[in-house]
């Protein structure tokens, strides 16, 4: 299987390393990357030789969210087209969320928007202590709709309310309190911390690990992927408002939208 926007290497232990490979764009996701992440999730899920997966980003950032060009393309689509794009992202996140292998997120640099969605579908997240996080969609007149069910499922409504609509940046310590990040460490210790988690997983029976993960999801209740249509409609509703159209236009024109009262 050949990919252009992600990398895949599986070692002799059965540990698959999936790497986002758009470093020049801070690994921002576009349609091709989303499709490739869906394909690799299906492949890893069905490969009996794979016992664990590590998801990371190449370059200076883990993932800066949605690619600006991809956003412009969405803005030009009709409602059905916008919902289709949202559906593709929701499908990808859903595939990673139910993967019957433990997924370790190796997070560094920055994770914004959709990057936080990717963190939410990892089972264990190790973050470099100075990583910057933010959900900035509301600054554009949008909402974190597609990733919302996955993020709220992991961090809970109370923590989500603190970051979903303020667009304020937050740190790894906040996400540790929220339960979305398992631990943080210095950049020099990041790989060793990931290896600690891999070693623990490889000491356990793979069938039991898969069953335990499925049990966690079952006990947690509703599958976040079941909200895909609801969130796609909510996002499409936003796209169609004059407020969002002004926000998107102002962003790309490097102008200030009428509602912004501070920098």
Structure commentary:
- With 263 residues, this protein is of the alpha/beta class.
- The chain has ten helices and eight strands.
- It has a single domain (6-206), classed as 2-enoyl-CoA Hydratase, Chain A, domain 1.
- It has helices spanning 31-45, 68-76, 79-97, 114-120, 148-163, 172-178, 190-202, 206-220, 228-239, 242-253, and strands at residues 6-10, 15-20, 52-57, 103-107, 110-112, 124-128, 132-134, 183-185.
- The chain has a six-stranded mixed sheet, with helices on both faces. The chain has a two-stranded parallel sheet with strand order 5-7.
- The model has no long low-confidence stretch (mean pLDDT 94).
CATH topology: 2-enoyl-CoA Hydratase, Chain A, domain 1
Q: What does the oligomeric state look like here? A: single chain
The structural domain count equals 1
The run of helices and strands is: EEHEHHEEHEEHHEHHHH
Distance between the termini: 45 Å
Helix percentage: 40-55%
Structure summary, number of beta strands: 8
Average of the residue pLDDT scores: 94
CATH class: Alpha Beta
- Radius of gyration from the CA trace? 18 Å
Strand content range: 5-15%
Q: CATH homologous superfamily?
A: 2-enoyl-CoA Hydratase, Chain A, domain 1
The backbone outline, from C-alpha atoms, is globular
Named CATH architecture = Alpha-Beta Complex
Strand order of the largest sheet: 1-2-3-4-6-8
In DSSP terms (H or I, runs of 4 or more residues), the helix count works out at: 10
How does the major sheet shape up?
Answer: 6 strands, mixed
* Poorly predicted regions: none
Structural class, from helix and strand content? alpha/beta
